[in-house]
Design goal:
Helices cover about 40% and strands about 20% of the residues. By secondary structure, the chain is of the alpha/beta class. α3 links the parallel β3 and β4. The radius of gyration is 20 Å and the shape is globular.
Length: about 350
């Protein structure tokens, strides 16, 4: 089973993201290019670039890095509402053509400062209904000409994207990644996405979700190739298990100290998938063989909520168990980002492949 392994480039205005080195020029083009080129040199297929109002524009960063690299695939996180689908389809297919077919896309429907860029916040059902239309229309614009579409949220008439995505065997257009654990999100993934990304849940939780998505594919009449699955998680890898756990515990102690006496306010974490991760701590501090839940108690969010901890052999063994469930895409990270691109790429990826 082939594996796609991607890293994460934080794309943040403020330095020190998740314990990263707060170096001068941390988000300069030279620094980001260095990270992207290191992914090329150490076995990674590319990297996820985060999105959100208050960050540098993700698509612009991706275009700049594609121009300075040769094989780096930017997994560009984008939001319906920030982009209109025809505008995005044109921009992405242009970059895909210029980069020789290296664009990957991550559709994000979660919370953001929508009012700041003129969008409006609907309820969960409305947000995912809009996302579904966005995915349907972008896919059509990439593969058809003279597209007319009249939806509840988007419409175009006689629309043809001038620059087409690169087509090759098994690829009609950039791969569409998607996340979300709510019922509404899973129904969108089952019919419209190419890859469903999971955060770092235990094996039984991921198996349950894969089973539900496979059932939804059949129930809802998926028209595309079968849905693929990915894992977005922090991997803390050291030369020995003992060293890894000592470093992991020290990192969490530092997070706890920074948080102070105030308990984590779970109301800040509204997404269903995030709540699932925070609930894991009630099952234990270490789940499966080496899934560490303690970071979630002290402010670790998203992919930083749970960590796989151990030697390269330990972590590879755990990731292979996810592979056995059907995971074929891994988006991994740890801080400091520069050093861990090298360490995890050199020590873990050969074992995973």
């Amino acid at each position: 089973m082939s594996v796609e392994a991607l890293w994460y480039i934080p794309n943040q205005v403020d330095p020190g993201h998740r314990g990263d080195d707060a170096v001068e020029g941390h988000n300069s083009l030279d620094r980001l290019t260095e990270l992207a080129r290191l992914t090329e040199d150490h076995g990674w297929g590319g990297a996820l670039l985060g999105t959100g109002w208050g960050r540098p524009d993700t698509f612009t960063v991706a275009a700049a890095l594609a121009a300075r690299t040769t094989s780096f695939q930017p997994l560009i996180a984008i939001r319906p509402g920030y982009w209109q689908p025809a505008h995005f389809a044109s921009a992405a297919s242009t970059l895909d053509q210029l980069s020789g077919g290296r664009v990957l896309v991550n559709i994000v429907s979660g919370q953001d400062n929508l009012a700041a860029y003129g969008d409006s916040e609907g309820d969960q059902a409305q947000r995912y209904a809009r996302t579904k239309e966005f995915l349907q229309l972008v896919r059509r614009l990439w593969t058809e000409e003279d597209v007319t579409f009249a939806g509840e949220h988007f419409s175009v008439t006689g629309s043809t994207v001038a620059t087409r995505p690169v087509v090759r065997k098994g690829r009609a257009h950039p791969r569409l990644y998607f996340g979300g654990a709510s019922d509404a999100a899973q129904r969108v993934a089952a019919t419209e996405a190419d890859v469903q990304l999971f955060w770092g849940e235990p094996l039984d939780g991921v198996a349950e979700r894969i089973g539900k998505l496979r059932a939804l594919e059949s129930e809802l009449g998926r028209e595309h190739a079968p849905l693929e699955f990915g894992l977005r998680i922090t991997t803390l890898v050291r030369d020995t298990s003992e060293e890894a756990w000592a470093d992991a515990e020290a990192k969490v102690a530092k997070m706890a100290e920074a948080q102070g006496a105030a308990p984590l306010d779970r109301r800040w974490f509204k997404a269903v998938g995030q709540q699932r991760l925070l609930d894991l701590a009630e099952r234990g501090e270490v789940l499966d063989d080496n899934l560490y839940t303690a970071p979630g108690k002290y402010g670790g969010g998203g992919a930083g909520t749970t960590w796989l901890v151990g030697s390269a052999q330990d972590v590879a063994k755990s990731l292979r168990k996810y592979q056995d469930l059907g995971i074929t895409h891994f988006v991994l990270s740890d801080t400091p980002y520069r050093e861990e691109i090298i360490r995890v790429g050199d020590q873990l990826l050969p074992l995973l492949r």
